[in-house]
Amino acid sequence: METVLQVQNVSKVIKGKTLVDNISFSVNQGEVFGFLGPNGAGKTTTIRMLVGLISPSSGEIKIGGYNITTEFKDAMRQVGCIVENPELYSYLTGYQNLIQFGRMLGTVDERRIEEVVKMVHLDERINEKVKNYSLGMKQRLGIAQALLGAPKLLILDEPTNGLDPAGIRELREFIHSLVKEQNISVFISSHLLSEIQMICDRVGIIHKGKIVRVSSVEELVNTAAEQVEWNVSPIEKAKRLLNTFDELKELTLIDDKIICRMPLTLIKYATKKLVSEGVDINSVRPLTVTLEDLFMQMTGGDLHA
Question: How far is C-alpha 127 from the chain's CA centre?
């Protein structure tokens, strides 16, 4: 599988402050990659580096195989992006907007404009003035603009901001169809974890400038489903005994209880072992953990992005 975006050991230091600290991740062809993190985590700084607005202090970024430092123009031709709300001329029609943006690129003809209009499903409204568009339609027109240069990678920064539930669902379905039909890669920065679960194939979570996890959404969901709380005594002895199970992962102590990840089928055998070793078990229960809960655990309790 082709790697469309490769971020390797990238850092950004401004005025002596490290905003992004040695991060690495990749985005493959034809996948939707979610980028999550609280305020000040380094998301915006990372995106600004990806689209060439600022340069990394160290490390390497490649897009479509091109290094953005040494092959900047070639790398930027592989990218289309919308940072926050798309910049559009409201007094022009959707089609006239695309003509203007196509002229800026210099390599876009009317045939390509017609192609992207069909991609974003604006065929019936493209000749209306943008001021009459809904927010969802403006978002799709912005994506059409970003697709004019036939990029390999589409970067969307908080694309669901301001959209109502119907608009969010429409955007989600559109992104899925775009990836399926065009085999394009999509990089999405968002704080709506429920949406990330439904949109993305994989996610990268950034906190205080560091990547704390990169995994598939399926792995995250499984992680949330396997958490177990143990209220036991003595707790240190129980912790030592539980750690003898190979299937157990990520054991932590929270509020005098043990929280760990383990297959739920293992609870019965672990309970028997603890009791046989003289550990008192007050309670043991699987936890209902949402992706939001998991995110808070990874980022020190800060859910806001």
Answer: 33
